[in-house]
Write a structure and sequence with these properties.
Layout: E1 5-8, E2 10-11, E3 25-28, E4 47-53, E5 71-78, E6 91-96, H1 112-123, H2 147-177
Antiparallel strand pairs: 1-3, 2-4, 4-5, 5-6
């Protein structure tokens, strides 16, 4: 992991990130994104929700004068009225301050793939698929052992098993020799 990488652990309440509450996202040199604060907001203005944030210890290159945490992702929705189904639907966007985190090198890092799936399901209004993180195929097995357990396993695999096979072979040889 590079010095410019950011691990995101703070999420807002939104269907895109609700299933990622105990997870993390891996971003590379992200920008802060958010809603512009206008004095007079139009009635049909898009609804912008900040959904992921930097840590409270984060700093900005070139210090913008803002205080952390900084919003790193927003979900934008325009034209949707809550609990009203319209013929045209709503316009939805997910804006992230990083263009690399869903690339080939980082898609499998942290929960980036799960975020991508949740974002696509929200954008397509497939709310039934936003309930949780889906199954992933197991690609690696990791065995965690203490040093003592490792030495015992090495002793069994490198000494006891070959020794047993040699002993068994010796007994068969002795029996056939007679």
């Amino acid at each position: 992991m590079r010095e410019t990488d950011v691990i995101v652990k703070a999420f807002g309440k939104h269907p895109v990130v609700n299933s990622l509450v105990e997870s993390r996202l891996h971003l590379s040199l992200p920008r802060s994104v958010g809603q512009l604060k206008l004095q007079a907001e139009a009635a049909d203005a898009p609804r912008v929700e900040e959904i992921a944030f930097s840590s409270p210890e984060a700093t900005v290159i070139g210090n913008s004068g803002r205080k952390p945490p900084f919003p790193l992702m927003v979900a934008v929705e325009k034209g949707a009225i809550r609990d009203v189904i319209t013929e045209r639907g709503a316009t939805r966007m997910v804006v992230v301050g990083d263009s690399l985190f869903l690339g080939n090198l980082q898609i499998d890092s942290a929960a980036n793939r799960e975020f991508a799936a949740a974002a696509v399901n929200w954008l397509l209004e497939r709310t039934q698929l936003l309930a949780g993180v889906g199954p992933r195929p197991v690609t690696q097995y990791k065995i965690v052992m203490t040093r003592t357990q490792l030495h015992q396993a090495q002793g069994v695999l490198l000494g006891a098993l070959p020794g047993f096979v040699l002993l068994l072979g010796g007994l068969v040889w002795l029996r056939r020799r007679r």
